[in-house]
Each structure stands twice: as structure tokens, then as C-alpha cells.
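Class, look over these C-alpha cells:
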Amino acid sequence: MMAGDVAMLPLESEFVDTSTLATPTSDWSMNPIGDLEFAGGGEAFEVELTASGNIESEDLIFSASIVPSLAQELDSQYDLTESDDYHTNCLGQNNRWIRSDSAGWFYLTPEGEFFRWRGSFDRSLHLGSFDTSYYDNPDLLTDPESPDVDVVVEGDILRIMPSAEFTGSFQIEVGATDGVQRGPTDLVLVTVTEPIDDFKTPPADEDDPVEDETPPPVLMVIANQDFYYQEYADTRASLEAAGLEVVVAATTTETATPHANSGQGDGSGHVTPDLALSDANADDYSAIVFVGGWGAASYQYAFEGTYSNGSYNSTEELKSTVNDLINDFVDQDKYVSAICHGVSVLAWARVDGVSPISGKTVSAWANTSPGSDTAFHTTRQEIEYNGGSMVQSGSIGDPTTATDDVIVDGRIITAENYDSAAMFGQVLGDAINDPAYIDEVFAEWE
């Protein structure tokens, strides 16, 4: 490192990696929040802050602040200068060049890699990675904008208040102190999405089909313990790309933990459900989705065995709540869908005494299911026992891959596994947005 370089750099990405809390040095610790995502429009978003250990949350003083982005850190450190054309392709390689009066020259590659020039490309110092929008508009580096968001803590409530026009991502650092010792902090990635207008039915005297209306949200059900992260994330991303809002429900609103190595990458993959299943009402949603992972077994209404993993054994009350919810979606002729082991929830449901997939063709994970004291050792066995017909893996579309293994059979939509999740969300989103579906189902709702 040459004289004048600062040891805090290079940073690796636009945001510092979101991580779980460090090992506490006292007999209490703040509970991690997990990443947050909510629709903008000017409404405040609130999160309750809690702690574990030998202390009550009300005895702590919580604090929160917005963490500067990598672009802000770099501009603050080097005072990067705006330019009309950023000297594109100077010295070849199609890079864009940025000047600093105090630190010389920097360059940004078409792929978004940012370097400090050291006299040659081989000796240049890598300072960070950005998406290609920064290459298209280097002003994002030379004049980075702070998020138009207020973050305050009142007691144990974290309140995030974006302006009505703001959308985007930023990080906040949340900490706590008992008045003597400050505990470890939590870095939280916050994403504010475009606001979604509430669905409105047409006036009673209109005979034309509903057009250009946004259907109600999709209800996505995950398990509080051992849901499959990629099946959740890829499905949700496709639904949101189709313009649909997604509301996440689980047994409780406590942080949901995915299977290890289920697509969450280096992050925890923790998800904070929007509501408990007991508070969900089919009237409020356009479809229901059951995400896979062994934890989905806790929602199997008619399953009478006991699982070896105690977290998969739930109460009769919870099973009845889920079954009643499925019945309500079926009664309203709305899409009932599931992916991977989530299809077993539909298999063990009962509508008028039979499984909603009885007589239906479905796709699902064909192999093992969580260990129990029953004769059911695969998801296929559970599906076929309950009257469903399950296709072979890869048999839909391209036989060399499961990415397109999605089946629509009436109002039942199923998919094989995480490989199929992106297509699953796309197919479901297209089905919900179909004007015929909107006209048949949504226009009847008050």
C-alpha cells in the first residue's frame, strides 16, 4: 500500500454485508432484525426491538442510524469530481475516468468495478464493486444521494419513515445499551419498493371486464423453522416482477429461519413474516403459495404421524387454521399453489373430505421427506396416498432441467423445487394477472 492510502478500503460492495449479531460480551444481547422490505408511499414502517438474556427490553436504550453507502464513503474520502463525459475509453478498455483533486485518477469498468489508478492497470487498487448503472451514470459516484428517509427510535420501536417519492435500498445500524455497556450492533438492509395501489372493483353499472387493475396481494406461507430460502426468494421476485404485492405469513411473526445452504448465500436468510396465519383472511388475497422445506410439514392437516424433528410437529389448532384457509381459497375459486415439499401441505389438506389435489396432476420434490414414525418416506408417497398424480422430475418442457417443471391443473399450480421457483412465480403471476381471472373472481369481491 502506498503512502496516503487508507486501510479501511477496499470495500467489496455497495452495502456492507448484513450479518447476525456478534457474540455478546454481557449477559444480554439484542435480537437480530433481519432484512426489511416494504412498499413506499410515505407511510412509516415500524419494527419492535427486542433482547434476549438477563434483561428486559424496556430496560435498554435502543438507537439506530443510516449507514453511508460505499459510494458516499468513497466520495467523502476522495472528493470525486463530476465530469461531462468522464473521459470514456481513455487508455482503451472502455473505462470511464473520474478525477480527484486530492488523490489523482480513478476508473470505472463497464462491469462496475472501481479502481484507483496507480500508473498501470496491473498496479491499480480495487476499491469496490457496483452494478452497471454506476458505469452508465458515474454521477452516482461523484454526487451520491443520501436516502430521503428518517430513522428514529422511540422506546423499543424502530420507525423508518421514507419520503412519499423514495424507493431504493439502504442500511441502518441498530444498537442498544443498558446504560453501562453497549451491546453488539445489527446491520439491517432496508428496501423500499414502489407503492402498490389497493385493488378497486369497478362500479356496479360497468359491464366491461376489469382492466388495468392491480389484484390483491399474494399470500406466501413459510415455516418459522426450515423453509427453503431460494424457493421463497425466487418465487417472490417473479411475483413482484409481475407487479404483485407479496404478504408473508407463518405460524408466528417471529423471525423465520431457513434451511442451511438453501440459497441464502452469505446472509442469514432470515425473514420476518408480515402476519401470523391465524390473522390471515382469504378475502384479502388473490392466491396462496406454500413454500417448501421440511418445515412445511408442520402445516399438514390430516397427517397423523409424529416427526423425528420436533419443530415439525405442530398443534391441531394450527393445522386447522391452515386447512380452513385453504378451504376459503378453494371456495372463492382462487389459485392454491405450492412448490417442492410445500405440495405435501395440499396433499394432506381436506376440502369436503378429500385432498384438493386428489385427481390433479402435480409436480413436487420426488425424493425424501422428513423422518417420521409413518411409512411415508418421500413427498411422492404423500401425494399419491392422497389421490394426486405426480409427474417425473424434468418431464415438463426441457427434459434436461427442472427449471420449467411447473404444472397448472385448474386452480392448482405446483412446481418441483428451487430450480423451478423463478418459473413458478412467473406462471402464477401471469395466471393472477389474466384479465379473465380478474373478471371471474376479483370483480365479485367487495
Residues 316-331 form the longest helix (16 residues). Residues 71-142 form one domain. The CA atoms of residues 169 and 191 lie 4 Å apart.
